[in-house]
Design a protein that fits this description.
Elements: H1 2-14, H2 16-50, H3 55-79
């Protein structure tokens, strides 16, 4: 929704090319913020369950997996015309 709003108002302000680019940038920023929130939640849940032991060994691979999945979903969305 935020991407659409950014694209719409960017198009109104500076034209369709800027609007599309602005929408993509907003989508990436919001996606990274959501990814960071998920990483924080996973890290907190693991810290609570493990008592803080060996947390880095578990959280880093999960974060890398989340980044890869996010990039794959972004590429699929772009290929579908998203």
């Amino acid at each position: 929704m935020l991407r659409f709003l950014g694209e719409h108002y960017g198009t109104l302000a500076l034209g369709p090319d800027f609007g599309h680019a602005f929408g993509v940038i907003i989508g990436l920023v919001v996606g990274l913020l959501l990814l960071s929130a998920v990483n924080t939640a996973v890290k907190g849940a693991l810290a609570a369950s493990l008592g803080g032991k060996a947390l880095r060994a578990v959280v880093v691979p999960i974060f890398i997996l989340l980044v890869v999945l996010t990039l794959v979903m972004f590429v699929v969305a772009l290929s579908l015309g998203g």
